[in-house]
Specification:
Layout lengths: L3 H9 L4 H15 L4 H21 L10 H17 L4 H19 L8 H21 L1 H4 L24 H22 L2 H11 L1 H6 L4 H27 L9 H14 L4 H21 L4 H15 L1 H5 L1 H4 L6
Helix pairs in contact: 2-8, 3-8, 3-11, 3-12, 3-13, 4-5, 4-6, 4-11, 5-11, 8-11, 9-11, 12-13, 13-14
């Protein structure tokens, strides 16, 4: 029988289909050049969903205010480019750092209370930051947004183009980097303790796991990943507004994970692909009622079951990653 260490090592191994999927993803901005802009959006939303899955799917921490870290990363990267230097990679790292610090500060708010309490507290943080961004118009541009953000070339060589190919490639590369890091994290002994906390917090405490410190750490890490997604949005669009803190951004993340699968790193990516493509196709046909059809799809998904619709374990024999 396979012991715990062998099981972790086996789960860390890449399945045969995974490199193929990522190679196709990285090539997609050039293979589907006319759709590079939506590919960029999918990559950003997928990274954002990945950050929520770290705390919701693997640790059991519910949140309706994850957009707080997304928005903080967006404004930090945009202000850095406008006031300090336009280098995208340095600006991205600055956005991640600012969102991580905010996550560390907010991690203390999730230690106590029930899931409902955490929902309200996390939502409150996002609403407070939205109001601050609106009031500090001398810095953030207020309701008009932070405009005039001009980014330099990626790695000093690749200028952002109007077709969005460079932006999409840049976002996909950052998504891959954070995916690999997240994969290593969840398939480590630390990741195993997170799933123990998710399954039964009291039992985890009884066997000696420091529940509060691990929850605070993964919450901080997830905040940094969300900040990276926000920074990518600001950098690839050249704009940041109070909309980045909006409640619907956090709510959409939960929908993405419901579509793709919670507690599966590819779930957020699959959900982002399905959601953005459905949104693009349906809104082009019926702009006023596209949310109705997506809602109907979600109802069918819940009633019928994801396995019956897509059977992910039939396609990917190697299990979840």
């Amino acid at each position: 029988m396979m012991n715990a260490q062998q099981s972790l090592q086996a789960s860390r191994r890449w399945k045969l289909w995974e490199p193929v999927v990522w190679l196709l993803a990285l090539a997609s901005p050039f293979l589907l050049s006319t759709h590079a802009l939506i590919i960029n959006e999918i990559a950003i939303v997928a990274l954002f969903a990945l950050s929520l899955d770290l705390i919701l799917g693997y640790t059991g921490i519910v949140s309706l205010g994850h957009a707080a870290f997304f928005g903080m990363g967006a404004y930090a990267a945009a202000l850095f480019a406008k006031l300090v230097m336009p280098d995208p990679v340095v600006g991205l790292l600055f956005g991640v750092a600012v969102a991580t610090v905010l996550g560390a500060m907010c991690s203390f708010t999730i230690m106590r209370g029930t899931d409902l309490t955490r929902l309200m507290v996390t939502l409150g943080v996002a609403l407070i930051l939205m109001e601050l961004a609106n009031k500090l118009d001398w810095l953030t541009g207020g309701a008009d947004g932070l405009q005039g953000v001009v980014m330099g070339p990626v790695l000093g060589r690749f200028d952002f183009d109007l077709q969005g190919q460079v932006a999409a490639s840049y976002s996909l590369c950052i998504l891959l980097v954070f995916f690999v890091l997240a994969r290593r994290l969840v398939h480590s002994p630390f990741g195993a303790t997170l799933t123990a906390i998710r399954d039964n917090r009291l039992r985890a405490m009884a066997i000696g796991i420091s529940v509060h410190s691990r929850m605070a750490l993964i919450y901080t890490v997830a905040a940094g990943v969300a900040g990276a997604a926000g920074a990518l949005l600001a950098q690839t669009t050249g704009f940041a507004s109070t909309d980045v803190f909006a409640f619907d951004r956090s709510a959409d993340l939960i929908l993405l994970l419901v579509i793709g699968g919670i507690g599966w790193l590819y779930g957020g990516i699959a959900g982002a692909v399905v959601f953005k493509i459905m949104q693009d196709l349906i809104s082009s046909v019926t702009p006023q009622y596209w949310t109705f059809w997506i809602g109907l799809f979600l109802v069918v998904l819940v009633l019928v079951g994801r396995e019956r619709l897509v059977r992910p374990r039939t396609w990917f024999k190697g299990g979840r990653s």
